[in-house]
Task: inverse folding
């Protein structure tokens, strides 16, 4: 990824625009569809993704054309995206002078008040304290002690069960940080994670797991100019074709498929409004 593009992208991620998205949802109070299964609780699992964008129609067109997502309006300025009929993401219009977009992952917790206290005690930040969203539960936006932003959800209807991700659906999430030990200590306390590792090519890949199930990657960020951040992955059938299509639709290629990075199966893209995400091929 070119340094200047990389720096702009990750600076946008650290803008915490996701806070405005969630606050807007709370004030408009849309009725959100149930995404979980009653009685299912999977702490530490990423259960939802929200996008905040200054240009809702352009974002809708981009993701519809790139991934085939279908959209429905739940309230003025908030769209629900579906992939093969399943709810996959929320998109909200950003009413602000800032012009960048941001994807925000939401992770499951069983006690949102405790999650906020754990964050404060660890010198993290509660950016938006817990509030209720109809059909979804209680949500808060946090920053870990290293400054990476994410959301937590205490579901009122259960968490979505684990399933093999379909094409054009979310498949993985990673934390990029400059303090692996500090981040690990915080997230282990917050979610009850343990650390695991796997050999991928010539590298050791570290990740968080809970109850034996991998939940998120843990990587040293590749450049000191990049802010500490969460990255969200979508599964695609042909990463090169998706990369070319994203560029043609007005997106930006921040890292093209490269044989030295996971055998060319992954790319980092940004939509026309600057929201970054990762696409990767994965064979069952």
Result:
């Amino acid at each position: 990824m070119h340094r200047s593009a990389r720096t702009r992208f990750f600076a946008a991620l650290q803008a915490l625009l996701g806070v405005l998205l969630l606050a807007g949802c709370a004030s408009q109070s849309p009725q959100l569809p149930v995404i979980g299964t009653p009685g299912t609780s999977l702490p530490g699992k990423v259960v939802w993704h929200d996008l905040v964008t200054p240009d809702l129609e352009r974002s809708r067109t981009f993701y519809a054309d790139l991934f085939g997502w279908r959209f429905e309006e739940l309230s003025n300025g908030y769209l629900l995206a579906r992939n093969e009929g399943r709810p996959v993401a929320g998109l909200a219009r950003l009413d602000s002078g800032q012009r960048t977009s941001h994807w925000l992952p939401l992770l499951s917790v069983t006690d949102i008040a405790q999650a906020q206290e754990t964050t404060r005690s660890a010198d993290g930040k509660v950016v938006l304290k817990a509030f209720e969203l109809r059909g979804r539960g209680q949500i808060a936006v946090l920053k870990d002690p290293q400054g990476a932003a994410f959301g937590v959800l205490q579901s009122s209807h259960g968490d979505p069960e684990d399933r093999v991700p379909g094409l054009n659906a979310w498949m993985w999430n990673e934390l990029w940080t400059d303090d692996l030990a500090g981040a690990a200590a915080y997230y282990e306390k917050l979610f009850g994670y343990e650390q695991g590792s796997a050999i991928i090519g010539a590298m050791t890949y570290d990740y968080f797991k809970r109850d034996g199930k991998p939940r998120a990657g843990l990587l040293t960020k590749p450049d000191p100019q990049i802010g500490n951040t969460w990255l969200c992955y979508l599964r695609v059938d042909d990463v090169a074709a998706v990369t070319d299509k994203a560029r043609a639709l007005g997106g930006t290629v921040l890292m093209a498929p490269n044989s030295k990075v996971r055998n060319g199966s992954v790319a980092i893209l940004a939509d026309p409004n600057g929201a970054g995400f990762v696409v990767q091929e994965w064979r069952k």
Observations:
- The chain has six helices and 16 strands.
- The first strand starts at residue 46 and ends at 53.
- Confidence is low (pLDDT under 50) at residues 5-27.
- The longest helix spans residues 17-28.
